[in-house]
Amino acid sequence: MKKLTTAIFLLVMFFTAQAAYSIQDKQVQNEDKTELLNIDWWNKFGDENLTNYIFIAFDNNQDLKTAGLNTQQALQMTKMSFSKELPSLSFDGQYQREFESSEIRFGNTVIPNYNQSRFILPLTMAYEFDIWGKNRLKTKSLKVQEEIVKQDEKSVYISLTSAIAANYFNLIKAQNLIKNQKELIDLQKDIVLKEEKKYQAGLAPIMELIQEKQALEFFEAELNNLIENEDVIKNRMFVLLGDNQTKIETKNDFNIIEIPEYLSPDLIQNRPDVIKSANYIDKTRFDVRIAKKDFLPSFLIYGQVGFNAYQLNKIFTPSSFLSAIGISPSVDLFTGGLKTSILRYKKLEYEKALQGYQKTILVSVQELNDALLSAKIARKNYDKMNNNFNFEDNLYKLSEKQLLIGAKSELDNLKAKQALLIAKKNEISAKADCLLGVINIYKASGGVDYTQNTGTNQENI
Description:
This protein is an alpha+beta fold and about 450 residues long. It contains ten helices and nine strands.
């Protein structure tokens, strides 16, 4: 009876452990992942359309869903390893019918022809006594692998939201350039008409007329390229959003984050690839320890309780009670050097992990510095283009005044406006480049709000 009580106790312990891990599983699955979107950061751009598109992608994007499924798979792998630390309990019932056969001899004892039935109802328990902690190390290794997969998922979130923002601002850029280009074409058509009149009146050479017509053809071809680019960006946005039924709406004004003069190298510690590399070092360290413990013997404890009867009406009687217990030590005496090779392989993998971590640090610092430098240059270029636009605007206003007093022809005034529109085109492109530079810093810093560490403020340009 004590054996039966022990078996029941082990059964309760087994299901209690499984229930505890199941609760942990549900907690991980129900984790709120909207924080990975970092909406507080994207709100700094002051564009509700942008944040709405990010939420749409959160609900529909296939890459995000796949990354989430990968994380859940990694969790199940950890659970599978954890289950090996617990005892297993199985029921393997058996009914056996022996029909009449030839006599059976046991030495001088002869059993004549007979037939009988046999009923076996056993509960079998097996447990690998983890005296060396090998199974625990395997679970820890897979737990670290689970964290690595989580960082992959975080990387997908950073890449996706950054791609949505970059395409959104490029779309605004394309739309503004199209609008500006249409004005430029209408203006060029007026210039061509006036040049034709001058040529017909003998006041302009044919070369000037041809050059203005060539400029018109060039502007129209450039407009076609801009329209194509707009369609391409929209199609790319549909893929990123995971839904081609969404109506893409944009705003014309830009809010950007002021670019800092300096970024702390500590920002790279937020990058998923850096965290992954550090976690992989931990994983390979566990794997080396597991490979070492594979040289040690293992101990399997097993037991069985149940009933064994030859008649169905006596199956639950005390006389039919069945019980057994034992321990099975096992050690590999010779494997042809397999375990030694595995250990050496794991050690080499650990060394590779160390080298990979060092390279990841260097690359991360480089990307952060490159992103900061590129953003600074983009901002300087924008300042130059903005100043140039202001100069052209002042020149055009002077041209308007000169036209009123008859000091400048209407054709010259149109060319002054043309120069203003070309300057506006350059200013639009430079402004969008500033936004893209800020997004690149965000990606290079691991998807964090780097402005909190630099004390910079939001600027509307």
